[in-house]
Design brief:
The complex is a heterodimer of chains A (about 80) and B (about 675).
Chain A lengths: L6 E3 L8 E7 L3 H9 L7 E6 L6 E5 L2 E5 L1 H5 L1 E5 L1
Antiparallel strand pairs in A: 1-6, 2-3, 2-6, 3-4, 4-5
Chain B lengths: L19 E9 L5 H9 L4 E4 L6 E9 L2 E7 L11 H13 L3 E7 L3 H11 L6 E6 L1 H6 L3 E2 L1 H8 L3 E3 L8 H12 L14 H14 L9 H10 L2 H10 L2 H13 L3 H18 L2 E2 L8 H9 L4 H46 L4 H38 L2 H12 L9 H6 L4 H7 L6 H10 L6 H15 L3 H28 L7 E4 L7 H35 L9 H14 L5 H9 L6 H9 L7 H8 L2 H13 L4 H11 L2 H27 L1
Parallel strand pairs in B: 1-4, 1-5, 5-6, 6-8
Antiparallel strand pairs in B: 2-3, 3-4, 7-9
Helix pairs in contact in B: 3-11, 7-8, 7-10, 12-13, 13-14, 14-21, 17-27, 18-20, 19-20, 19-26, 20-26, 21-27, 22-23, 23-24, 26-28, 27-28
The chains are: A alpha+beta (about 80), B alpha/beta (about 675).
Chain lengths: ~80, ~675
């Protein structure tokens, strides 16, 4: 899929990069769970670990969250 | 759905010794140190049960302070109060329906912004809230400067700084609770409001539903939860509205489907405002201990090595301490008791069958329960330690990529792995999986992990039939079990859950220094729960099977069980097994290692060893079929009792037994028929 230049799925963000949540895709339950953990539009996310396969670790609102690769792909982020 | 509370729990009631009763609910997100605070408050007065009809632990306890008796209830740890999980539904229903006098919201000061999210939801429920600001020491180490008084002034509710692991702030927390109850605290909470864009919708929603909101739900809260898309509340409102009004509600909701993001975003904005004056954040770019440790512990390669090392350590402990202790219990404690009792019975002239019923049936059964304890104890302690330190989540993270192949995710790895020691702690370990479906699937698959008892049977039988190739055959059989586990995992996920992808979303808590008291109490509680619940079932079934194996003939070859074995012989023929082998297989239901013992009893050989008798009587094909079936056979009594305890359902327990019965018989037939071609 093609994204506007500055938009991409969280799963494609490199370690150490700082991005902003733009939107979430997926079912209601999934969106509600992530929203409670702090993944709301505008929230700052730092990619902590991403080896290009398997799950990723991000830092958001002071906590570390592990997301399966599929889950991370549903979080659309904006790079600056 | 909730238990009616007893009169002594009523607000303003007095306890028998004249103390005033305060009902306190302890709420908090996972990993904020809630168990530690609960343990400090209640000590060993705690009572552990299940939430009605649920398999989630409900912990209650007492605490006496300054002429008050505080009734403390530990709510399940939840990130929010939307009905995403059973835990969240339990927590909010308790607060709404039981109306505790005070709710303590415990937060992690080191992850303040995120932990305050639960507070924003609690404040909407119109119950007095006291904020316990835990782990202020860790927050300081991470570079946060927090001023509790400023936060208190901003929020309008009591804020108590605490370091629960060092017993700091507990007294102050109790004082704050009492001050709120006595009305001495100027309780004036700010509440987060919904952003402008959705405020009008909320008013419209409330206007439509306001006459249909059942007691004791707060109207605005119901409207807000509708807007958030909360499944439970939506269903409740749907059932009460006529079709016309529901259409109105439905079209409003449809036009605002993504409201949850806006609502949650608004709450985080509010948190930001509350924190602004009270908290100075550390400079960015600082790398903490957790991140540094995770570069190794969560690394795809090093992480696996770390995990192998740690799990190896756990098993080493089990074998060097647990197994000898188990043998000692069996040969000394149980045997001594048995000798003593049978001597006593003999002295009083009890008939032989009574003696054997008591000694072999009751004491034997109780012995089985008892000998499980050392291994369980070590597993529980190791589990509690790894969980408290914060390592457990890393293990799940490292294993996630592999677990997806069998339709599960990372959190299922540890419970399944523990099954290699014994399936019982494995199944109990499945509690760490919050997702109900993933937990159930893990429990159903766990009995396929070959436990040490089955390995012992294998160790005896493989050399009998395969001599020097025994090791290879053993490995093959273990691999077969794991293969069946993987295939069944995929299949069950497809059939039971329609191939639903299990979302892997997990917090990696900051590493903590473990609190031995918390771990100790957990180990104690879990062991007790096993003895009480699984123990009684194990005892009952052991006695029953003993009766079936001893009557009417006096031994297993002239018993009901033998009769059953003969009836099963036509089936056994498909896998080359005679009635005796079938009986041996059946008795492995009591405990897997019984298979060999039973063979010993039935093929009672005077001059030959059991091994040579088996070699003479049983063809190799049948021997292999027997081993395959033994490895895949139905869970033993203890495992079955644990499955029932953990699923809370006889249906799923029966499903598990039925499933493995079919799988093992099929496998036996296939192996025998293929080899006999």
């Amino acid at each position: 899929m093609l994204w506007p230049n500055s938009l991409k799925p969280l799963s494609e963000v490199l370690p150490g990069q700082r991005v902003q949540v733009e939107s979430l895709r997926g079912g209601r339950g999934f969106v509600a769970r992530l929203a409670a953990l702090g993944f709301t539009p505008g929230a700052e996310v730092i990619m902590v670990q991403n080896y290009g396969y398997g799950p990723v670790i991000v830092s958001i609102r002071g906590s570390y969250i592990a997301l399966g690769r599929g889950e991370a792909a549903k979080v659309l982020v904006k790079t600056r | 759905m909730l238990e009616p509370h007893s009169p002594e729990n009523e607000k303003g009631a007095s306890s028998p010794d004249g103390k005033r009763v305060i009902r306190v609910a302890l709420a908090g997100q996972p990993n904020v140190g809630k168990s530690t605070v609960f343990n400090l408050l209640t000590g060993l007065s705690q009572h552990v049960g299940n939430w009605p009809g649920k398999t989630i632990e409900k912990k209650t306890g007492y605490c006496k302070y300054n002429g008050y008796l505080l009734h403390i209830i530990d709510l399940p740890g939840t990130y929010s109060l939307t009905a995403n999980s059973l835990e969240e539904r339990i927590a909010r229903n308790y607060i709404i329906k039981e109306r505790p006098d005070v709710v303590v919201a415990l937060v992690d000061a080191a992850i303040l912004e995120r932990s305050l999210y639960l507070l924003t939801e609690l404040l909407l429920l119109q119950v007095p809230v006291v904020l316990g600001l835990n782990m202020v020491d860790v927050a300081e180490q991470r570079g946060y400067q927090i001023e509790p008084e400023v936060l208190q002034a901003a929020l309008g509710i009591p804020v108590v700084p605490m370091v629960a692991t060092r017993n700091q702030g507990i007294k102050e927390l109790l004082e704050a609770i009492i001050a709120v109850v006595e009305g001495r605290f100027p309780y004036n909470p700010r509440r987060p409001e919904v952003r402008k864009d959705h405020r009008d919708v909320l008013v419209q929603l409330l206007e439509i539903i306001k006459d249909e909101i059942p007691e004791p739900y707060p109207g605005e809260w119901v409207a807000l939860k509708l807007l958030e898309g909360d499944a439970e509340i939506t269903k409740m409102v749907r059932e009460r509205l006529d079709d016309h009004r529901w259409e109105e509600v439905h079209s409003l909701l449809k036009a605002h489907e993504d409201a949850i993001l806006d609502v949650a975003g608004g709450r985080y904005e509010w948190i930001g405002r509350m924190m602004r004056a009270a908290v100075v954040k550390p400079r960015l770019g600082q790398i903490g201990l957790t991140e540094r440790l995770d570069r190794v512990a969560a690394h795809p390669v090093w992480g696996l090595l770390v995990m192998a090392f740690i799990l190896g350590g756990v098993f080493w402990l089990t074998y060097t301490i647990g197994s000898p202790l188990q043998e000692w219990l069996e040969s000394y404690v149980v045997q001594t008791l048995a000798d003593f009792v049978s001597g006593y019975l003999e002295a009083y002239g009890a008939p032989g069958w009574v003696q054997r019923a008591v000694v072999e049936g009751i004491i034997g059964g109780a012995g089985t329960v008892l000998t499980f304890l050392p291994i369980l104890f070590i597993f529980f302690a190791a589990l509690g330690f790894l969980e408290d330190v914060g390592y457990m989540a890393r293990m799940a993270y490292v294993m996630d990529r592999f677990m997806h192949f069998i339709g599960l995710h990372g959190k299922s790895f540890l419970p399944l792995f523990l099954g290699f020691g014994c399936n019982v702690p494995g199944i109990m370990g499945a509690r760490i999986i919050e997702d109900e479906k993933a937990r159930l699937l893990t429990i159903l698959l766990a009995p396929l992990v070959p436990c040490t008892a089955r390995m012992a049977v294998l160790a005896f039988l493989a050399p009998v039939f395969f001599g020097p190739r025994a090791v290879m055959v053993s490995w093959g059989l273990v691999l077969l079990n794991l293969l069946v586990l993987a295939v069944l995992g995929k299949l069950l996920n497809l059939v039971l859950f329609h191939g639903e992808h299990m979302a892997f979303i997990m917090e990696l808590p900051l590493y903590h220094i473990p609190n031995l008291r918390t771990i100790g109490i957990t180990v104690w509680r879990r062991s007790l729960a096993f003895i009480k619940k699984a123990g009684t079932i194990i005892l009952a079934v052991s006695v029953l099977v003993w009766v079936l194996a001893s009557f009417p003939g006096g031994d297993v070859s002239h018993s009901v069980l033998a009769w059953v074995g003969q009836k099963l012989e036509p089936i056994g023929r498909f896998m080359g097994l005679d009635a005796y082998m079938m009986v041996a297989l059946l008795t492995s239901f009591i405990a897997k290692e019984n298979a060999v013992a039973t063979l010993g009893v039935i093929y009672r050989a005077e001059e030959e060893t059991l091994a040579t008798v088996l070699q003479r009587m049983v063809p190799v094909e049948a021997g292999l079929a027997f081993m395959v079936m033994e490895m895949l056979f139905i869970p033993c009594v203890a495992t079955m009792a644990t499955i029932h305890q953990e699923t809370g359902s006889w249906r799923w327990t029966a499903f598990s037994v039925g499933l493995l019965l079919v799988v093992s018989f099929l496998a036996g037939v296939i192996v025998y028929q293929c080899l006999s071609l």
